[in-house]
Amino acid sequence: MALPPTSPLLDNKLIMGVDPGTQIMGYAIIEVTGQRVDVLRYDVINLKQYGSNHAVKLKKIFDRMVELIEEFLPDELAIEAPFFGVNVQSMLKLGRAQGVAIAAALSRQIPYVEYAPTKVKQSVTGSGSASKEQVAHMLRQTLKLPPIEEASKFLDATDALAVAVCHHYMKGNNVKAGGKSWGKFLDENPDRLASGAAAKKPARAKAK
């Protein structure tokens, strides 16, 4: 007899996916129940307004990541590894942004795993050389996503969503830095609960 999607016997996990960037950073939260995937949110952190002030951008990434973690209480973080390009300075800045995002997760006891861009594309589309548009198209079909008007923003957000979905496909086998989620940590340390945060899994939110 098949179990309904809401059965407590099915594994339930929240995965946060991140596509690092120093101008636009994409993020996504998915809830996995058995084999069912629900998109709770996918959006971006817009850092363009801070110009060339890289230090301020890094702080904004850390602060926003912590806010999202405390709002959704993800079990694991999946993050895309930097792509090795020819611009050394850009690679350095991107690596810092990725490191800050990971540090924010670790500060809240969230285990993480990195995925190469080709691995993410391969897992979602079947091709490691797929374009951003092809990744977004496949996710729209697979997850039945509503259309989004801002195409550029949509592509950054869907890149992050692809990382989260890739992690789901990998079954989290490469998770690093422990196995406690932020939700479990709060259960064990209620005094660490941030003001206004609820120590439980959030209700499914609408993707935006």
Detailed description of the structure:
- By secondary structure, this protein is of the alpha/beta class.
- It has a single domain, classed as Nucleotidyltransferase, domain 5 (2-Layer Sandwich).
- It is built from 6 helices and 5 strands, in the order E-E-E-H-E-H-E-H-H-H-H.
- Strands 3-2-1-4-5 form a 5-stranded mixed beta sheet.
- A hairpin with a 4-residue loop joins strand 1 and strand 2.
- The longest helix has 19 residues, at 54-72.
- It is globular, with a radius of gyration of 17 Å.
- The termini are far apart.
- Mean pLDDT is 81; it is low at 1-8, 177-182 and 192-208.
- It comes from Hymenobacter jejuensis.
- It catalyses: Endonucleolytic cleavage at a junction such as a reciprocal single-stranded crossover between two homologous DNA duplexes (Holliday junction).
Quick one: how many beta strands?
Answer: 5
- Write the CATH architecture name: 2-Layer Sandwich
Give the structural class.
Answer: alpha/beta
CATH topology: Nucleotidyltransferase, domain 5
- Alpha carbon gap, first and last residue: 35 Å
**What is the assigned CATH homologous superfamily?**
Ribonuclease H-like superfamily/Ribonuclease H
- Helix content range: 40-55%
Widest sheet: strand ordering: 3-2-1-4-5
CATH class: Alpha Beta
Poorly predicted regions? 1-8, 177-182, 192-208
> Helical stretch count?
6
Major sheet size, sense and barrel closure: 5 strands, mixed
Radius of gyration of CA atoms, rounded to a whole number: 17 Å
User: What percent strand?
Assistant: 15-25%
Organism: Hymenobacter jejuensis
Active site: 19, 80, 156
Catalytic activity: Endonucleolytic cleavage at a junction such as a reciprocal single-stranded crossover between two homologous DNA duplexes (Holliday junction)
Cofactor: Mg(2+)
